[in-house]
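Supplementary material to the annual report.
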Amino acid sequence: GAGVSQSPSNKVTEKGKDVELRCDPISGHTALYWYRQSLGQGLEFLIYFQGNSAPDKSGLPSDRFSAERTGGSVSTLTIQRTQQEDSAVYLCASRVPGTSANEQFFGPGTRLTVL
Amino acid sequence: GIQVEQSPPDLILQEGANSTLRCNFSDSVNNLQWFHQNPWGQLINLFYIPSGTKQNGRLSATTVATERYSLLYISSSQTTDSGVYFCAVGPYNQGGKLIFGQGTELSVKP
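Predicted assembly:
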């Protein structure tokens, strides 16, 4: 079946602009995660959604970052007033239903460049 | 928080050679995954292995949870095995979020 999809694949923006990144998880996966990969910080967790529960936002680096998940499926990560340090690859993953220990599958990522 | 250390950071092999990549973690986990990041940045699932041993073709992995380490074995390496290999662990009671190591960059020469 289809894997996790993300759009756009690449995004170039100017400092100070807002951006929205989209993730479509694998059908039937109720848990969804956002991570980012940057040169200085490696791969780091940002935010986690599980069903109708309140999201775990503990990894968001600043209040300029927010995310929502509508209808228990598609998620959007929004970065307001982008800064150059936000340049990174943003990865989305969804998890096999069941326990939180189950396997995660990643999308191809969105490469964000802030000029 | 939990620390994940991978070794070696870089590895250069001749095609056909075998290798072992190691992942140490500092606390108990209920999830451990190995990934291969291809040149386009996609994370490819290799193994979901919170404990025990698994094999898939030329690759195999072993996790000894009680001693907090995992090993990824690559046999008869091929140039297509090149890329970065990541170990990621899921700490208990943290909703399944993964903590990644810094990766091992493998280069297989023809």
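Chain B has no helices and eleven strands.
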